[in-house]
Specification:
- The protein is an all-alpha fold.
- The chain is built from seven helices and no strands.
- Helix content is about 65%, strand content about 0%.
- About 5% of the residues have low confidence.
Length: about 170
């Protein structure tokens, strides 16, 4: 269904063929840039929803794959802008621990409920004071993916510390 109307079968087939042929490479691109499987899948799907909404325009386009990549890129950059302007941007605006604590050995301060990945990224940042680029290199991910992982780990850690009434 497109705009409340059934999409003509040849247009449905056009979109279907694009999806079958290119969804994997589009997903991989989104995942590479975001480092988040769910968000990559969501944005890839959204690109195809937009393609279905603009199927007439897309069908006439000289490079439908380029059009899909551009649409996906716009969605990714929009998502990254949201992250940078969210309540928890990549910067270290979340103070997880009071200033008076000795952070030379954080392992005993981190909640046991954190995943190993969350523990590792928090240790890299707060105990070893690595930059985002250094952490990204160590973890083998992009700098933006590193920032998102750190953001999520800090938020989860903070919630657990509040729950345990440590902060």
């Amino acid at each position: 269904i497109l705009g409340g109307k059934l999409m003509e079968s040849h247009l449905q087939q056009f979109i279907h063929n694009l999806y079958i042929k290119h969804s994997r490479s589009l997903y991989q691109r989104a995942y590479h840039l975001l480092g988040d499987k769910e968000k990559a899948e969501e944005l890839m799907q959204e690109a195809f929803v937009i393609a279905a909404d603009k199927v007439y325009q897309l069908q006439e386009h000289p490079n439908p794959l380029g059009w899909l990549h551009k649409t996906l890129s716009n969605l990714i950059y929009k998502e990254l802008r949201k992250i940078h302007t969210s309540d928890f941007p990549f910067g270290d605006d979340i103070d997880l621990f009071p200033n008076y604590l000795d952070l030379t050995d954080l392992t005993h301060l981190l909640p046991v409920q954190l995943s190993e990945d969350e523990r590792n990224i928090l240790l890299l940042r707060y105990q070893y004071n690595y930059s985002y680029q250094e952490m990204a290199n160590i973890l083998g991910i992009s700098q933006s993916a590193c920032g998102m992982r750190l953001q999520r780990a800090k938020k989860h850690c903070r919630n657990l510390l509040k729950k345990e009434k440590i902060i």
